[in-house]
Amino acid sequence: MPMSSSWFCLHSSENETDFTHATLSLDNRGLAYGDGFFTTMGVIDGQILWLDYHHQRLISHQKALQLDVDSHSLITALITHAQHLQQGVLKLIVVRAAQAIRGYGYTSSASGSACDVWLKSSAMVVATDKQLCLPDGRFIPIQPASTAVCLSAQIACLPPPLAGLKSLNRLDTVLASAELQRIKSHLLPSDSSLHTPAQPSIEEGLLRDMNGCWIEGTMSNVFYQLADAPVTKPQSLESKNIIGTAQENSNYLIAGQWYTPSLAQSGIAGVMRQVIIDALSNTAYPVIIRPLQDDDLPLLRRLFFCNALRGIMPMANLTLLNDSVVTML
Q1: Which of 71, 146, 225, 243 is the Cys-Cys partner for 203 at CB 3.0 to 4.6 Å?
Q2: What would the DSSP string read from start to end of 123-147?
């Protein structure tokens, strides 16, 4: 549970001396057009998790959106805030500054690439009770096994350089997340204490893009393994052994071939997705970029979602659109 949260203006294009009086105008381009990007960082013991990857996101996103961000100074400021926070989450939002011209466009001058930078600091517990050791020696959190559902909502296909960006344009994900919440409220008992290890809760929804390919979750990227034959079960879990497999198997990430969908046209290129791809790049089974199609779903052997805050979220089963259930090994 969050203990406290507050917003800081780290940089204002209108007031460069007293950021404490910076305000958010209704003309803000992030509010009006989604003209900006964000990133969310976990903090443990005053250290930002995967800081180098978040730094690369700042560099790639400012280039793609043609924003003038001093990424090195910004990282220095983030490190200071993380040291004060000690344990929790930092959410950074970068928005293009207000423009002199009317409408969507922005000037080709320096003012066109100027930006405002906001930071939300939230004290909360970042779960790291169970961790896996990556081949490069770093550790990654792994959550208790849960379940996922295929959603009917779809996410947009975007042209370069927008595909893969964590931009402020997230309405497709908003609607998909709302669908997932409706499913949770209809299928799960109101008393969360009833979710036993043998009956895990629904944690994520699998999303397609407009081409019909399954791309990612509502808050995460997805990795999967395929079996040679379908493993489809009724909507129930056979035993606690299935639930405990991912946590008990120290070779979870390096046993077998993992695939992840391409994000060349849709989805968000998450920090944790890249961490896992890089970590497995020099192993016997480097990650293969491969579409996840309808025909693949009954053949799923393992599937997990991941993001920079929660690490790996292994799935015990996946409910398909036709209500059949694929059970993971």
Answers
A1: 146
A2: E-----SSEEE-TTS-EEEBPPPEE
Cα–Cα distance, 223 to 314 (Å, whole number): 9
- One-letter amino acid for residue 215 of the chain: I
- pTM listed for this prediction: 0.87
Of 98, 65, 260, which is closest to residue 169 (Cα–Cα)?
A: 65
Distance CA 95, CA 97 (A): 6
Rounded CA separation 249/227 (Å) = 18
Continuous segment of H or E residues that includes residue 310? none
Distance CA 324, CA 172 (A): 25
Neighbours of 234 (CB within 10 A): 9
Q: What token pair was written down for 93?
A: 């939002």
Between CA 258 and CA 277 the distance in angstroms is 10
Half-sphere exposure in the Cβ direction for 163 (13 Å, CA):
13
Q: What is the predicted pLDDT for the residue at 259?
A: 98
- Phi, psi of 21, rounded to the nearest 5 degrees: -100, 10
Closest listed residue to residue 329, CA positions, set 145, 161, 150, 169: 145
* pLDDT band for position 155 (cuts 50, 70, 90): very high
Helix orientation angle between 271-279 and 51-65, rounded to the nearest 10 degrees: 120
Please enumerate in sequence order all residues whose Cβ is within 8 A of that of 172, keeping only pairs 6 or more positions apart, or say none. 153, 154, 155, 156
Q: Of the candidates 304, 294, 308, which has an alpha carbon nearest to the alpha carbon of residue 148?
A: 304
Sequential DSSP letters for 188-245: S-S-GGG--TTSPPEEEEEEEETTS-EEEESSSEEEEEE-SS--EE-SS---HHHHHH
> How far apart (Å, rounded) are the C-alpha atoms in residues 304 and 220?
9
